[in-house]
Each structure stands twice: as C-alpha cells, then as structure tokens.
Design a protein that fits this description.
The protein is an alpha/beta fold. The chain has two domains: 267 residues, no CATH class; 219 residues, Alpha-Beta Complex (Spore Coat Polysaccharide Biosynthesis Protein SpsA, Chain A), CATH 3.90.550. Helices cover 54% and strands 9% of the residues. Helix 4 links the parallel strand 2 and strand 3.
Length: 520
C-alpha cells in the first residue's frame, strides 16, 4: 500500500515538473490554433448564409442568369432537334437496387431514338452479374436502347468504369451524359428539366440536381445524415453556384457536356473522389456549373454504421488528397480569375474539406477536454460555446423538421469527425494503403423492409471486430475520464458536455447505431 502511494506521489511530482515548462505552452499553442480554425469556419459559414439570404431575396433575378426554354419537336426535322443523351449507371454487386435504378433510367421521358442507357457493371458476383444482364435484356425487349457493358478488371473503380464506358463507339454521337449511381431513381422529367440548360447556354458544362433521401426516417443515424447533406445542398452547393458558377460534382444526379469533360482530360482515378477531381479540372478550363435545387432525385442513405464509416473515410480522405495534388495546378491556372482561384483553394478545399474536420475533432474532442487537466489554459467562451453554437444553428437551416434533433446531431458529428480527421491526415500525407481505398457503400434497398406476415430482422450477436469499434471506445474513455476530473475539480462545468459526448462515442463504439443488417 505504501509503495502504491509512493508511486502516485512520484507521478504527481513528475506531472508538476513537466506541466509548467512543456504542457502549458503546448496547450496554449493548440488552443490558439484551434480558435483560429474555428474563426475560419465561422466566417465561411456566415458568408455562405448571407449568400443564401441574397439568393432567396433576389430569386427572380438569379433565375435569369441562364436561359431555359423547353425543347420542342420540329415538324420538319422531327426528333433530331433533341440532343443525343447518354445515361450511365455504374454499379458493383448491387443486388438490392439494380432493378430500381435501371427501371428509373429506362423510364426517363426523352425521345427513345435520342437516348442511350449504358449499364456499367463491375460486379464480381456472377449471380448478380447475370441478374443485371437479364434485366438489361428485359428492357431491351421493350424497345429501350440499353447497353450492358462489363470489364475484365476493376482498375480505377468507378472512375475506371466511367472512363471505359466513354470509349465505346456509340458514345461519339452523344452530346451530353447523365450519371446516376445504382441507388438513384430520377423522375421521368429529369432530362426535360436539365438538358435545356446545357442546350441553350454553351458556357455551361454541368447541371447538378439535389438528392432526396427515401430512407431518411429509417433510424436516427439516417436523420443525422439528412441534416448534414441537406445543409450541403441547400447552402454549400447553392452558394457556389450563385457566386462562382462552381461547386463539387456530387458524382451522380448530374448531366455533363461531353465536350467539356473531354477537354479537361476525362475521368481520372488518382483519388477516391473522381467526381470532385473532374469538376475542379473542368472549372479550371473556364466552364461554368449550375445547381438546380428544386430538382430532386431519390436515393438511399447508408443505414448501417459500418457502411457510413467507410463512406465518410472516402469523402474526407479523397478531397484532402486531391487538394494536395492540385493546389499548385490551381494556383498557376491562367483561365480563371484570381478571386475564383482563392475561392477554390481557401473556401472550397482548405476550410470546408480540411479545417472543418480537424477543428471538430481536435478542438472539441481532444484539446477542449484536455484543458480541464491544465487549469492554467483557458478557452474563451466565444470559442468554446458561442461559435460552435452559431455554426450548429446555421447547419439546422437545411432541415427545419429535424431542428429538435440538433443536440443529437452535434454529438453524432463529433463522433464521425474522428474518422474524417483520420481520413484527412491519410489523404494529405498519403499515409498507408487506405489513401486509395474504395469500398462501395452498401445499399439495403428493400432488404430491410419487413413484409406483412414476416418477422423483423433480429439484431445479430455482437462479434469483436465487427460490432465493436475500438477507436470510438478509446476516445469515449478519454472524454469520460476528463469529465470525471472536471466534475471533481473543475470550474467550467465542461463535464456536462464531456459525459454526453463520451456516451455518444460509447454508443457508436459498441455498434448500437444505425440499423442491423445481415452480413453488414
């Protein structure tokens, strides 16, 4: 017992010896850096909010930026007045949703002799491959001009499939290409509402539609995703379209001018965000984009935590890696204005794709909790409370129906910031093999819908390594211990937040979030 007391005493003495000369200065530097990043993010969010206010107040004038006029059949030339459109559907082992996506694409209202449906099937499961091919033949039998294309390999993943798809001879007759991921279901009038923008405005390269989530009410996790993505579409995409005619292509639910795509070098697989890569390169050629927020395409959110983690890794690692590879190219570009280059480098990439992830995790899940152990380091209230509160409230604008879930969204976003931060560092430093990791987001389609008379899917037993996520648990333990210390000795009452946040990490760590799908 005496030895234990002596050990604790020595540890306490060592802590006091290193705290003043090392820990305190380091913590002050970290707090200053985090506060600076918080201000960057705050200014960016307020700026975009003001842009949206202006957009809403001046809606009529902004709508006149581009000519839109319905394309009508000519009595003399017939359907030849309609541009030839290619519709690409890349897919990989999409057993649950392939029928929905192919059916929706084949149901697009456009002259049948002026559209080609191209199914790019990279499936490795021979059974699924046969099912997809059979579905294509079924639609071909109905008179639909549909092509079923496969490759011998999966080189380049989605980018490789799209690039290979553009090489077929029949594509040369097409002027525009619409792209839909396998879980997307466009309404029949999609082409009627998008193609006129490109047909009547030769400076436009891309028309991007908004996503509409068919399973947003499936569980709390999908509601949280809806809040984040609604903000992305309602604010970020709208602001980019209104101010700079530039935003990141969302990889699906958009229509490209093929000549613009080819001018920029086509699809590249150097990162896991081939869509953003293409958008930046096309924009640097001087082309403009338009976002059509009132045109929505139905799709599915990942509803299992495992699938969402993989998706968020790709969505954070890819942009950081692309930023590293393109920053010099953007800075040296001569075809766009200095202001647009600043916007792309600073706002689009640095603040939204890097700072936003880093400050969320490092500040609110590492540095702020650590300050309870070092009372000499104080975080001003405006940095600890006011700025994050305003940023969170601004985010809720995109999904008013979920405003009452704002606290849950904050806790959930902080949990996911762990993986986004890790992905960001992997992308920036190209560390390890996960920098180019591409895991297709698993879709459940109808699989999780309980049919009448059938039993609901039971939660499978917990298996270490599948349902338990140690990173989340370790962070949860750290936050819980900091909360206990603050409860006993602190004066800032951070323990309220720390206990809630640690609980969120524990819930995620033990896999009790999202739905439980067989073999997920």
């Amino acid at each position: 017992m005496e030895g234990l007391i002596t050990s604790y005493g020595l540890m306490g003495t060592m802590w006091e010896q290193v705290r003043a000369p090392l820990i305190v200065p380091f913590m002050k530097i970290m707090v200053t850096m985090c506060l600076a990043m918080s201000i960057m993010l705050f200014v960016e969010r307020v700026y975009m909010g003001l842009v949206i206010v202006v957009v809403k107040l001046m809606r009529y004038k902004l709508d006149k930026r581009y000519k839109w006029e319905a394309i009508k059949e000519d009595l003399e030339t017939g359907n030849s007045v309609f541009p030839m459109v290619l519709v690409q559907i890349p897919m990989y082992n999409e057993k649950e949703v392939y029928q929905l996506s192919i059916g929706a694409a084949c149901g697009l209202s456009w002259p049948s002799d002026r559209v080609i449906i191209q199914v790019l099937d990279d499936s490795t499961d021979p059974i699924i491959k046969d099912l997809v091919e059979l579905e294509c033949k079924r639609w071909a039998g109905k008179g639909i001009n549909i092509k079923y294309e496969i490759r011998d390999n999966r080189n380049g993943y989605k980018a490789g499939a799209l690039k290979q798809g553009m090489k077929h001879s029949y594509v040369k007759q097409c002027e525009f290409v619409a792209i839909f991921d396998a879980d997307f279901q466009p309404d029949p009038d999609f082409l009627w509402r998008t193609i006129p923008f490109l047909a009547h405005n030769p400076e436009l390269a891309l028309v991007q539609a908004r996503w509409k989530f068919v399973n947003s009410d499936e569980c709390l996790m999908t509601r949280m995703q809806e809040m984040s993505l609604d903000y992305h579409f309602t604010v970020e995409q709208e602001a980019g379209s209104a101010t700079h005619a530039f935003f990141g292509f969302n990889g699906t639910a958009g229509v490209w001018r093929i000549s613009a795509l080819n001018e920029a070098g086509g699809w590249k697989d150097r990162t896991t965000v081939e869509d953003m890569d293409l958008a930046v390169r096309v924009s640097l050629k001087g082309w403009k984009f338009v976002y059509v927020g009132d045109l929505k395409v139905k799709n599915e959110l990942p509803s299992t935590f495992k699938a969402y983690r993989y998706q968020q890794h790709r969505w954070s690692c890819g942009p950081a890696n692309l930023f590293k590879k393109m920053i010099i190219e953007i800075a040296r570009n001569k075809k766009v204005t200095l202001w647009k280059k600043f916007y792309v480098i600073y706002s689009f990439f640095f603040v939204r794709k890097i700072v936003a992830h880093l400050v969320t995790f490092i500040f609110y899940c590492v540095v702020l909790p650590a300050t309870v152990l070092v009372p000499e380091v104080q975080v001003p209230k405006w940095g600890a409370i006011y700025i994050p509160s305003i940023v969170s409230l601004l985010n809720a604008v995109g999904t008013p129906r979920s405003f009452h879930l704002l606290v849950f969204w904050i806790l959930f976003e902080n949990v996911m910031s762990l993986h986004r931060t890790k992905g960001t560092f992997i992308g920036l430093f190209e560390a390890g093999t996960r920098v180019n990791e591409w895991v297709v987001t698993k879709k459940l389609g109808e699989a999780m819908k309980v049919k009448p008379g059938s039993k609901a899917t039971k939660k499978p037993p917990i298996q270490i390594g599948e349902s338990v996520y140690m990173l989340e648990i370790f962070v949860g333990i750290y936050l819980f211990l900091c909360g206990c210390y603050d409860f006993s000795f602190g004066k800032n009452h951070y323990y309220i937040y720390l206990f809630l946040q640690s609980m969120a990490f524990f819930i995620a760590g033990f896999g009790y979030i999202g739905v439980f799908a067989p073999n997920s």
